[in-house]
Specification:
- Residues 286-301, 485-498 have a biased composition (Polar residues).
- This is MucBP domain protein.
- Residues 557-617, 728-801 form the Mucin binding domain.
- The protein is an all-beta fold.
- It folds into nine domains: 5-123, no CATH class; 159-233, Ubiquitin-like (UB roll); 234-329, Immunoglobulin-like; 333-433, Sandwich (Immunoglobulin-like); 437-536, Immunoglobulin-like, CATH 2.60.40.4300; 540-619, Roll (Ubiquitin-like (UB roll)); 623-722, Immunoglobulin-like; 724-804, Ubiquitin-like (UB roll); and more.
- 3% of the residues lie in helices and 46% in strands.
- It is built from three helices and 64 strands.
- The strands form 21 sheets. Strands 18-17-16-24-21 form a five-stranded mixed sheet, with no helix packed on it. Strands 27-26-25-33-30 form a five-stranded mixed sheet, with no helix packed on it.
- β3 and β4 form a beta hairpin.
C-alpha cells in the first residue's frame, strides 16, 4: 500500500528478506517474492509502521546482489517502539483502541497491558480528511489461535447541502439534486444546477440561500441552495465554460521500446458558469481559478528537462494549451567490485575445555583479494561483469605452535591455491592433553593416653601408669597434571578406622577423672592427639535444685541446678541469694528455701550418696489497664490533584473512639489475660462535605459508622471535581441590508469551570462569508481565548454579528444604455428614379450610465439614477 501508516503489536521477530520477482508483483502467493524489512530486536513490542517508495537491493547471489527492486517498503518506526510485558501473552483479550481526528490529523493508539495502559500518538501526513482503517493479524510460521473482537466503531457524520426549486410563494416545484465530485466530506466541493421548469422562468436565488456551488464548510447539513421561479417569466439559462491544461511526458529521442512506461498525461480543468437572463449574459463565476503546480515524476535512468510545471491562474477566456516535459537518458555507471577470500587457521582443545589451561594461539587469517569491472545500465539496472584479476592466488603454509602438556593433530597447515569463486573457509588444529602421573601416599594417625595427678604433685605418691600409644594407617592415589603440575587426590583407604577403649588403671587413694578412655572412630583427616586421665583425692558432691511449684500456668519443672563439692565434714561454700534474686527479676516469687539455714550446710561423710537441697518458686501475677483508640480520618482533595490558583481545601477531619479494659499479666510466661471492654461499640457521626465554589464533591457527606474495639483505623477521601459548564456561540444578523435580525447558527460548547473553551469561530465565519455575509463583530474571539466561568446555574452566551455583503454591479449591459434616432429621407410615392438624389440618412445617439449593486445574500440588485436624466437630440433640417 502506498504512503500507508500502520501500527502493529508484534510477538514474532522477522529477519530482513530481500525482494525478488517483478516490480510490483503482489499477486504471487509466496510473500518472499515481495520481501520485508527486519524487525527491531526488542522481543514483543508495539510500534508505528510506514510505507515509503524505495529502491531495495535484491537477494544476494553467487556474484553479489541481483539488482534493485522498486517497492513501497514497510518499515517499523523504531523510535516509537515500546516493549510489551511477556505476562500479556496470557490467552485473554486485551483492550485496544484506535482514534483518528480528521481535523487535527492526529492518530492515537491505546493498548491495555497487564502492567497499565500504553499510548502511541502521531500526526498523519495526508491532505485527506478521512482515513480507511484495516485490521489484520498473522501467526508468522507458527500455528496458534489469534483473535480480536470489535467492540465499537464511532463514525463522524458526512457533510451535505439541501436543494429546493420554489415559486415566489415558497411552493416546491420539483425535486432537488446535488453533486459531490470528491465525496460528501468537509472541505470538499458541491455543485447544483439551475433546472428548466416548463411554464416557469428563473428569477434568482432566494434570500439566505447558499451559493449554487461552493465548499462544504462543516460536517452535517451546511444549509439550503434555493432557486426561485416565476410563472411566465422570461427564460433564464446558465452557460458553462471549461478551460483545460494538459501536461504530457515524452522521451527526447522519441524511443519508448524497452523503456519504463512514461507517466500518465495530467489533465487539469476549471469550470466557469454565468447566468444569461433574456439574452443578456452576466459575469463568469468564479472570476478566476488556479491550476496547481505539478512535480515531474522520476523515471529510473532518465533526467527530465524540468522538475516542475508551475501553477497558473486562468479565467473563462484563457487557453493554456499543452505543456510537454522531455526525458533524456543517463549514461551507464561503471564501478570496480572486489572479492575477498579468507582462510582462517583456528586452534582449539579437543575436549573444548580452556579454563585453567595455557592460552591457545591466536587465529591466523590469510586474505587474498580479486577485482573486476561492473557496468550497470541506468534504466534496466542490469549489470555486466568483467573477468576476475588475478585468476588464482596462493596462501602460505602455517606451522602449528607447541603447547606444554598437549599434542596437536597436525604439525603444519599446508599452503593452498585459491580462485575468486571459492568461499572463505576455516582450518581447525586441535590439541589433545597428555596422560597424568600417578603415585601412592600414606598417613598415620596416633592417639596417646597419658596419666597425671590433678594437682601436678608426684613426690611420695604411687607411680603413675605408662602412656598407651594407638596408631592407625591410611593410603590414597595421587594424580599429577602434566600441564599445570596440579595434583588430584583420590579417596583415603579405608575411609575410617577405630582405636580400642583403654581402662584407667587403679592408683591407691586416688580417683581417676575417667574410669575408661572410650574407643574412637578415626578419619584420615584427623590429627594425632592426646587423651589425659587425671587422678585426684576422693571428694563429696551435692546439688542445689531450683524448681517451680506447678501453679499459675507453669507446670512443675526444674529451672536450674548448681553442683557443689568438697571434702567430707566441711562447710558447703554456697549461697542461694543471688540465684533467688535472679529468678525474681524473671518474674518469680520465693515459696521456700530448703538450703539456707542458721550456721549454713556441711558435707556429710557418705561417699556413695550425693546430697540434694531444693529451692521452690512460683510465677508472679500483675494487673494493668489497656486503652484502645479507633481513628477515622476524612481528607479533602481535588480530583485532578491541582491546587495552585484554586480555593483552599477544607481541613482534615479526625474522629476518635476510645475503649478501656483490665489485663492480667503473667510475668514469667508473658501471657496476658484481658477482661471485658468498658463498652462494646462506639459511633463516629456523619460529616457533611463543605462546599467549594466551581467544584462538586464526589459525595455529599461521609456517613455515620459504628466501630468496635477490634475495628481498624480508616481513612475516607472526598474529591472535588470541576463543575460541568455549558455555553453557546450564536451567529446573528444585524438587521441591515434587507435581512431582518435573526439567528443563523447556534453552536453549543461544554467544559469544566475555569478551563479554556475549545472552540474557534474561524470555520463558521468563513462559511458565512461564502454565503455572502460580512463580519460585523466577533464577541467570542479574544487574544487569550475564552474561559468557562464558575457559575453552573447560568449558561454563558457569546454573539457573532454579520451583515449581508453588497457587491458593485460591473455588468456593462446593465449599467449603460444607448438611445438611437435614425432620420431617413424618401419620396412619398417610393419612386426615386429620374429624380434628384435624396439626402443620406442621419443617425443621432444619446448615451446614459448608472451604478448598481447586488446583495450577495438576497440576490436583490439595486440601481442608481441614469446620468444624465435627459439628453436633447439636435434638430435636423
Amino acid at each position: 500500500m502506498r504512503n500507508a501508516t500502520g501500527f502493529k503489536l508484534d510477538t514474532f521477530w522477522n529477519v530482513h528478506t530481500p525482494p525478488k520477482g517483478n516490480r510490483f508483483d503482489t499477486n504471487n502467493t509466496d510473500s518472499f517474492q515481495y520481501g520485508w524489512a527486519e524487525d527491531p530486536r526488542l522481543g514483543q513490542f508495539g510500534a508505528w509502521v510506514n510505507t515509503t517508495h524505495k529502491q531495495v537491493p535484491g537477494a544476494r547471489g553467487l556474484f553479489g546482489p541481483s539488482g534493485t527492486y522498486e517497492r513501497w517498503w514497510a518499515e517499523t518506526d523504531a523510535g516509537s517502539a515500546q516493549r510489551l510485558d511477556s505476562s500479556d501473552l496470557d490467552g485473554r483479550f486485551h483492550r485496544f483502541a484506535i482514534n483518528y481526528d480528521g481535523v487535527t490529523k492526529q492518530l492515537t493508539v491505546y493498548y491495555e497491558s497487564n502492567l497499565g495502559i500504553k499510548k502511541w500518538t502521531k500526526k498523519v501526513s495526508t491532505p485527506e480528511q478521512l482515513m480507511s482503517m484495516v485490521v489484520t493479524a498473522t501467526t508468522g510460521n507458527y500455528k496458534n489461535l489469534q483473535q480480536f473482537q470489535i467492540k465499537r466503531f464511532d463514525f463522524y457524520q458526512s457533510a451535505s447541502v439541501d436543494v429546493r426549486y420554489e415559486d415566489e410563494q415558497g411552493r416546491e416545484l420539483t425535486e432537488g439534486s446535488v453533486t459531490y465530485p470528491q465525496g460528501a466530506f468537509k472541505g470538499k466541493a458541491y455543485t447544483t444546477e439551475q433546472k428548466k421548469i416548463p411554464g416557469y422562468g428563473f428569477i434568482g436565488m432566494k434570500r439566505g440561500s447558499l451559493p449554487p456551488s461552493g465548499t462544504l464548510a462543516d460536517w452535517g447539513t451546511n444549509g439550503t441552495v434555493t432557486y426561485v421561479y416565476r410563472r411566465g417569466a422570461a427564460d433564464v439559462k446558465t452557460e458553462k465554460q471549461t478551460v483545460t491544461r494538459r501536461i504530457e511526458y515524452r522521451y527526447r529521442d522519441g524511443q519508448t521500446a524497452g523503456r519504463p512506461a512514461l507517466p500518465q498525461t495530467v489533465t487539469q480543468t476549471a469550470e466557469f458558469t454565468r447566468t444569461v437572463t433574456g439574452g443578456r449574459p452576466g459575469p463568469w463565476s468564479p472570476a478566476s481559478q488556479n491550476f496547481g503546480g505539478v512535480n515531474t515524476p522520476s523515471i529510473t535512468g532518465f533526467t527530465p528537462d524540468k522538475t516542475r510545471v508551475d501553477g497558473i491562474t486562468v479565467n473563462a477566456g484563457s487557453t493554456p494549451g499543452t505543456e510537454i516535459v522531455y526525458y533524456e537518458k543517463i549514461a551507464p555507471r561503471v564501478t570496480t567490485e572486489t572479492k575477498d577470500v579468507t582462510r582462517t587457521v583456528a586452534y582449539e582443545y579437543e575436549d573444548g575445555v580452556t579454563s585453567g589451561r595455557p592460552a591457545l594461539p591466536r587465529e591466523v587469517q590469510q586474505n587474498v583479494q580479486f577485482t573486476r569491472q561492473v557496468s550497470e545500465d541506468p534504466v534496466t539496472g542490469q549489470k555486466t561483469y568483467g573477468n576476475w584479476t588475478p585468476s588464482r592466488q596462493t596462501v602460505d603454509a602455517v606451522d602449528t605452535p607447541a603447547i606444554k602438556g598437549f599434542t596437536p593433530n597436525k604439525t603444519r597447515v599446508n599452503s593452498a591455491s585459491v580462485s575468486p569463486t571459492d568461499p572463505s573457509w576455516r582450518e581447525i588444529v586441535s590439541y589433545r592433553k597428555n596422560n597424568p602421573k600417578v603415585t601412592t601416599e600414606t598417613k598415620d594417625v596416633t592417639r596417646t593416653v597419658a596419666y597425671e595427678y590433678e594437682d601436678g604433685v608426684t613426690r611420695n605418691r604411687p607411680a603413675l601408669p605408662q602412656p598407651v600409644e594407638q596408631t592407625v594407617q591410611f593410603t590414597r592415589q595421587v594424580s599429577e597434571d602434566p600441564v599445570t603440575g596440579q595434583k588430584t587426590y583420590g579417596n583415603w583407604t579405608p575411609s575410617r578406622q577405630t582405636v580400642g577403649a583403654v581402662d584407667s588403671p587403679e592408683v591407691a587413694g586416688f580417683t581417676p577423672s575417667k574410669p575408661r578412655v572410650n574407643s574412637a572412630s578415626v578419619s584420615p583427616t584427623d590429627p594425632s592427639w592426646r587423651e589425659i586421665v587425671s587422678y585426684a583425692p576422693a571428694t563429696q558432691r551435692g546439688t542445689i535444685v531450683y524448681r517451680t511449684d506447678g501453679r499459675n500456668g507453669v507446670p512443675a519443672k526444674t529451672l536450674h541446678t548448681d553442683n557443689v563439692s568438697g571434702q567430707s565434714d566441711t562447710p558447703v561454700n554456697y549461697t542461694t541469694t543471688d540465684k533467688i534474686n535472679e529468678f525474681k527479676q524473671q518474674g518469680y516469687d520465693l515459696v521456700s528455701d530448703g538450703f539456707t539455714k542458721a550456721g549454713g550446710q556441711r558435707f556429710d561423710s557418705n561417699n556413695n550418696v550425693d546430697q540434694t537441697w531444693e529451692v521452690v518458686l512460683t510465677p508472679r501475677i500483675e494487673t494493668r489497664s489497656e486503652t484502645k483508640q479507633v481513628l477515622r480520618t476524612i481528607e479533602y482533595q481535588y480530583g485532578d490533584g491541582v491546587t495552585e490558583g484554586r480555593p483552599a481545601l477544607p481541613p482534615t477531619v479526625t474522629q476518635p473512639a476510645s475503649f478501656n479494659r483490665q489485663v492480667s499479666v503473667n510475668k514469667v510466661t508473658g501471657v496476658e489475660t484481658p477482661g471485658a471492654w468498658s463498652r462494646r461499640s462506639g459511633t463516629l457521626p456523619e460529616v457533611s462535605s463543605p462546599g467549594i465554589t466551581g467544584f462538586t464533591p464526589d459525595r455529599a457527606s461521609v456517613p455515620l459508622i459504628t466501630v468496635t474495639p477490634t475495628s481498624p483505623d480508616s481513612k475516607e477521601v472526598v474529591k472535588y471535581n470541576l463543575d460541568e459548564q455549558r455555553g453557546s456561540i450564536k451567529y446573528v444578523t444585524d438587521g441591515k441590508n434587507g435581512v431582518p435580525v435573526k439567528t443563523l447558527y447556534t453552536d453549543p460548547v461544554t467544559g469544566k469551570s475555569g478551563e479554556p473553551v475549545s472552540y474557534s469561530t474561524v470555520a463558521r465565519i468563513e462559511q458565512l462569508k461564502q454565503a455572502g455575509y460580512t463580519l460585523v463583530s466577533d464577541g467570542f474571539t479574544q487574544p487569550n481565548g475564552q474561559t468557562f466561568d464558575k457559575d453552573k446555574t447560568q449558561d454563558q452566551t457569546w454573539t457573532v454579528v454579520v451583515t449581508p455583503r453588497l457587491d458593485d454591479n460591473t455588468n456593462p449591459a446593465e449599467l449603460n444604455n444607448k438611445v438611437t434616432r435614425t432620420i431617413k429621407y424618401q419620396y412619398a410615392d417610393g419612386k426615386p428614379e429620374g429624380r434628384p438624389a435624396l439626402k443620406a440618412p442621419v443617425t443621432q445617439e444619446a448615451t446614459f450610465t448608472r451604478t448598481g449593486e447586488r446583495n450577495r445574500v438576497t440576490g436583490v440588485e439595486t440601481f442608481g439614477a441614469w446620468t444624465p436624466a435627459t439628453k436633447e437630440l439636435a434638430q435636423e433640417t
